[in-house]
Amino acid sequence: MGEEMKVVLHGMWASPFSKRVELTLKLKGVPFEHVEEDLKNKSPQLLQYNPVYKKVPVLVPNENPIAESLIILECIDETWKNNPSTPS
């Protein structure tokens, strides 16, 4: 890949869905920035990136938000082919 992709994960420490995405990114060796969200006081970025459900996790690779952990995991596997996170 020529250009480095900026990856941001909006999540919460107590969310198993956020932890699933975080662990997959780490297993794949994908550098990412983690933004810890307070679900009682949601950030404007979270509300912008997931306006319908307003929940975590939200993965934002290159300013293209993806919500829902299973969809995020599928996108991670398709984008970063090294070290498959799920069995074939």
Short synopsis of the structure:
With 88 residues, the protein is of the alpha+beta class. The chain is 34% helix and 17% strand. The protein has a 4-stranded mixed β-sheet with strand order 2-1-3-4, covered by helices on one side.
Structural overview:
The protein has 88 residues and is an alpha+beta fold. A hairpin with a 4-residue loop joins strand 3 and strand 4. The chain has 3 helices and 4 strands; from the N terminus they run E-H-E-H-E-E-H. Helix 1 packs parallel to helix 3. It starts with 6 loop residues before the first strand and ends in a 9-residue tail after the last helix.
Descriptors:
88 residues, alpha+beta, 4-stranded mixed beta sheet, 3 helices, globular
Q: Quick one: how many beta strands? A: 4
Strand order of the largest sheet: 2-1-3-4
**Shape, principal axes of CA atoms:** globular
Q: Looking at the chains present, what oligomeric state does this protein adopt? A: single chain
Low-confidence runs of at least 5 consecutive residues: none
Structural class: alpha+beta
Largest sheet entry: 4 strands, mixed
Radius of gyration: 13 Å
Helical percentage: 25-40%
Helices, by number, come to 3
H and E order? EHEHEEH
If you average the pLDDT, what whole number results?
92
Give the end-to-end Cα distance, rounded to a whole number of Å.
Answer: 24 Å
